[in-house]
Every structure is written in C-alpha cells, then in structure tokens.
Amino acid sequence: MSTLRQNLDALLQLQQLDSERDKLVRQKNTLDTGANLTQAVAAAQSDYEHKAAELFSINGSLKDAELELASIEKKIKDYESKMRQGAVTNTREVMNFEKEFNQLNRQRAALDDKILNLMEKSESQTAVVHSAQNKVTSIDRDLSTTKESYHGELSKIESALGRMTASRSEIAKLVADSALLKRYEALRARPGNSGIAIARTTQSTCGACHMQIGTIAVTQAESGSQLAICENCGRIMA
Ligand SMILES: [Zn+2]
C-alpha cells in the first residue's frame, strides 16, 4: 500500500511528462506545413500564365501587322513597276493612281509605327514574363525547403510523442490511488487549467496559480499527510 506522498510524487512525475507532451503537441500544431507557400505558388503561377497570354497576344498582333505590311509593300512595288512601264497614261487614271499610291504609302508608314510599337511592347512584356516565371521558380523552391523541414520536424516530434506514450503508461502505474489519478485527469482537462493539475508549493504559494496559501495547507501539501487542494484554483498541491 503506497502512501499519499508516494502517489503525489508519481503524479508530479506524470505532470512533468504530460506538460512536455503538451508542449510538443503545441509545437506540432504550429509547424509550418507550407500551406501559405502552396497558395503563393498557385497565385504566382496564375500571374505568370496571365502575363504569358498577354505576350502571346502582342506577338500575334505583331505577326498580323508584319503580314499586312508585306502585302502593302507588294502592292506598292506593283504600282511602281506599272509606273515605270508607263502603263497608266490617261490623266484621270494618273490622278487616281497617284491618290491610291499615296494612300498605300501612308498605310505603310502607319504600319511601320505600329510594328515598332508592338516590338517594344513585346520586348518589355518578355521581360515581365521572365520575371514572373522566376518568381514561380523561387517560391516553389522555398516551398520544397519548407515541406522538407516540416516533414523532418514532424517525424522528430512524432517519435518523441511515441516514446512519451510508452513511458507515460509506466509512470501512471505508479499512481496506486486510482481516484486520485482520475481527479488529476479531470483537473488537467478543465478549461483554463492549461493542462496543469498538480504543482509543488513554492514559498507558501500554490505552484500553479501562485496565490498565497495557509501554512496548514503548505504543511499538508509538503508532508503528504493529507490531500491539499488550492482554495484559489482547485488544483492538487504537493
Ligand atoms: Zn492554485
């Protein structure tokens, strides 16, 4: 038959282990799983695709303008060769001919401007696309690093928790008073207790809530002559 003091000492041991375990569980829950970076990669990827589509469209317009220019230049050449051959002689025809010829030249000048402008746009958009692509690569790399470290940390914590579960059942066996053990578990689970059910008294105060306690209670707690409960927080004092 074990004494109250022995039961309290076993409970204190259990409390120490449980607190370490709680701390590990909290650590586990705050590990960075890479969820934010996964979202960031998706956003960067979509941004890149949007910018690449814009470049594709600019390059399409450029190609169209170049084809249009080629066709106008061909027409201009045809006019020039007709003029050289002296194919147009009638005054009215000559006037119309010149009018159309000038019109074609104006179109060519406008297209030249348009092409130059599109080429500049294409060049700057290409740089924008490259930078967006680099951003995806860079965030993706960060994500891999984060995931790797997450899995490393997680497996360390999991194995530590596994070891603790094994030693916990050994320590729990040392608490012979099953009613006391139940009380301990209930106190640990109580909201606001932060998982602390038992604490040593320190300088006449409860080791859990740090409120001053009477000298009789201190003596009871320390000697284990009688179960001492903190009047303020209801936890077991030892
Ligand atoms: Zn207390």
Task: Walk me through what this model shows.
- With 238 residues, the chain is mostly helical.
- The chain folds into two domains: 1-28 and 177-238, Helix Hairpins (Orthogonal Bundle); 31-174, Helix Hairpins.
- It has five helices and three strands; from the N terminus they run ααααβαββ.
- A three-stranded mixed sheet has the order 1-3-2.
- Helix 1 runs antiparallel to helix 3 and helix 2 packs antiparallel against helix 3.
- The protein is rod-shaped, with a radius of gyration of 42 Å.
- The chain starts with a helix and ends with a strand.
- Bound molecules: zinc ion (ZN).
- Zinc ion is lined by residues 206, 208-209, 211, 230, 232-233, 235.
